[in-house]
Amino acid sequence: MSSMASMSAIGGLNGMEGGASVNFSADPPEQAHAPARNKCVTHVRPFTSVDAAVAAVESLDRDLKKFELAVADSLQDYLGVQMAQITDCALARGWEPVSFMQRDGFRVYRYEAMRSPRKSKKGAAGKTDRA
Description:
- This protein is of the alpha+beta class and 131 residues long.
- The protein has five helices and five strands.
- The radius of gyration is 19 Å and the shape is globular.
- It starts with a helix and ends in a 5-residue tail after the last helix.
- The model is unreliable at 1-16 and 31-38 (pLDDT under 50).
């Protein structure tokens, strides 16, 4: 499935400055619409500034299960500082990066809600039986 098809499968949230797509349900998108999606062309305008991308992430509902964020290649500095700022904002709001797809002039980053932390079995493994 192409990135454009997957973005429209999730649903779009495109602004003047950039593009993001979101999924408001836990159910996977219906496959019945796949042929129609492949025929249309979705134009993605990736974020070209850190501030705009951070503002978009901050505006998303915290209950969101997953979303995709299109970020221009111009924000891909060699140290990764600009993407670190965007990802830090997503992590602070409860989403973790899962993957990205490189496209012509931008990357589409996929974020998902963080999994709940597993409970440690320290008590059982760290203690010895004393009689």
